[in-house]
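pinned: reference chain
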Amino acid sequence: MMTFLAVLFSAQAAAAFPVPDCAAVPGWTRQGPERTYDAETLFDYMDGNSEGYFAYGFTLMKGVTCVNGASDQLVIDVSEMGDPDRAWGFFVTNRDQGSPVQGIGSGGQVLPRRATFAKGRYYTEIAASPDKDHREVLGAFVTALEPRVPGPAGVPEAVAWFPAEGLVPGSVRLVPESVLGLRILKSGFMGQYAVGRAFVVPEATAAAAAGTMEKLRTRFVGGAPVAGLGEEAFGARDQYLGGLLVFRKGARVAGVANVAAIGDATALAMALAGRLP
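pinned: its structure tokens
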């Protein structure tokens, strides 16, 4: 009985993966077999450029090549990432910084030769050839495939934690490891302001966050306690991070870095603390 259930659940999980379909847009057909890559085989497919995928929790990729006529070709790949936040974070990191983000899934772009979007745990990318403007067909495929991808279409809750005043538009991103270049801050969100960089690192529990604060105090020897900010806070100066103001609120460690003086970060840190749950 247990073996039957294991097979059943495995089949259900496999069926849930949004395998790209060339026939989603009329006139396009699949060329060659479906591609599947996991953490062991992605390296070869990406010509060694797979580390970025792994940082965001990559588990599996499925892809197809679609053709229409003698020359037009689309390579469609759908990757399952660690969670919806990481799928969104991977999109934000790899988007075209000079082009606007469109309301596709939790974020997407349709460019002349490339379309990408994130939704749920999945990141979809479509590369078109030859070198010409393919936006019409790329948009058609995105419109057809996006509803088939399971999971939420909203941006991470953390995006709303960053105060809007002074925030560089589109600068909030997920840092999958070593926030501010510090291994102590394993993973979190960061946004750019005129005064410096604001960050939020969610921990599993308040006790874990308190432990992280203790490690940070040890790292930044000479940091001074700051009253009235979160449940505990300190300010420090660092050779690389400049002025640094760090606080804890519940299970989240947050603050502002790269400021000219600690006082410059106070208003932003207070506003950030006020928006944290």
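why pinned: The chain is about 25% helix and 30% strand. The CA atoms of residues 104 and 229 lie 37 Å apart.
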